[in-house]
Amino acid sequence: MKLKASVLFALRMLKPHPGAITTAGKSLIGAIFCIGLSLIPLVVVLTVSEGMIEGITSRIIDLSSFHIQVNVRPGSSISKSAEELKNLATKISYIDGVTESYPERQGVALAAGSTGRIGATIRCLPPEIFNNETNFSALFTIVEGNLSLSKPNNVLIGTKIASSLNLKVGDTIRLVTFKTGLNGKIIPKITPFQVEGIVSCGYQELDSLWIFVPFDTGYKLLSDSVSNMLVGIQTKDAFSDDLYKTARQVADISPAGCVVRLWNELNTAEFENFSSTRIMLIFIMILIVLVASVNISSALVMLAMERRKEIAILKSMGASTSGIVFSFLITGFCTGLAGIIIGMPIGIFCAINVNEIISFLEYIINFFSKVWYNISVIFSQGQMDFVPIHLLNPTYYLEHIPVVLPFTELFCIVAGTLILAVIVSIFPSIRAGKEKPVETLRKV
Predict the structure, then answer these.
(1) What pLDDT, in 10s, does the model give residues 400-438?
(2) CA distance 401 to 352
(3) Whole-angstrom Cα distance, residue 316 to residue 265?
């Protein structure tokens, strides 16, 4: 049996005469739609997880740990004054591959507003880090006020802290810091600041921690016992192999008492958690595609039973077993391909518009929840405030999911689905090829 004949027989099974769609044909159509439907959530999960992890990773790397971090140990020569730390940052900025270098002092404090108190991390940074051209400021959105630390008594706070303390731009926030006295007692110090701006990086887990203070003011505010000093370094690419070369150059010019660390060393646990979660989600989605592919096998079994007469006639005319097997493999391959043609565009469309889809679903859910809440209030004596439902809680996820289409992974999905379609077609194809024409024609 020639290749052309095998292909023509496969096309006849895939496209029967008009009005002659049999049970096996309906099963093939069902298998196509099952493959398509199973690919939609796989593509969406892959794209959303890729965008979510990339968005959170970029914020952690660029805003929290920096690409490279030089930690200054207490008691070293660099820790004696703010000018020494500034000079080290300036010296590092001239290294090839370094794009930005800033001194920073971090410490913990108690932030007090008009309605309460909350623990926070004080980040003392130079005002120029919030200029428009820096990678640091590019990840912030100004909710209210200005993204500026031009005055010594100005601070920038996150939306979560502003909401918790009921603060607005122009309000006074008091920072309670602590230091150890000569007698070993803890001495509190209250310093008032004016809120210059309320900002958000789109990730509340970070917004809820930070209060930004001008470097010179914050350096005097925090003591060595409750703070640490560092130089944050940004490079051209945090994932480049040249990052290690740059880190070695930074270590060479750093004086004694300084420890150079890379971003992946500082955030190992978080990134391992992201990777394992993503792999688990993709594995579950692949299982769904595998279950959907089984429909191809069952459809081909029914197709072989319905086409027994035609197979017998072809074999009696000289068709080989391998030719019949190949025809059914082509049928299974084309079924998987048709499912891909249906599922991939829909999945990519849903992934690109995932933020709008989530917002629409939240609107519908909250609309009916609000209706049920109003009805329950009528019949209940107590009344509780209505709490909106969030499909992706912004406390743990990004407020806006960056859309990143991983073309390499999408290609692997297409190739894997086609291979899977051929694999599940092997058994029914071999079974169809072993049909004995004499016994089949005898029953006709």
Answers:
(1) 888 888 888 888 888 888 888 888 888 888 887 777 765
(2) 10
(3) 70
